[in-house]
Amino acid sequence: DSGVTQTPKHLITATGQRVTLRCSPRSGDLSVYWYQQSLDQGLQFLIHYYNGEERAKGNILERFSAQQFPDLHSELNLSSLELGDSALYFCASSVEATGSEKLFFGSGTQLSVL
Amino acid sequence: SQQGEEDPQALSIQEGENATMNCSYKTSINNLQWYRQNSGRGLVHLILIRSNEREKHSGRLRVTLDTSKKSSSLLITASRAADTASYFCATDRLQGAQKLVFGQGTRLTINP
Question: Which of A2, A96, B34, B86 could be disulfide-bonded to A104 (CB atoms 3.0-4.6 Å)?
Answer without folding.
Answer: A2
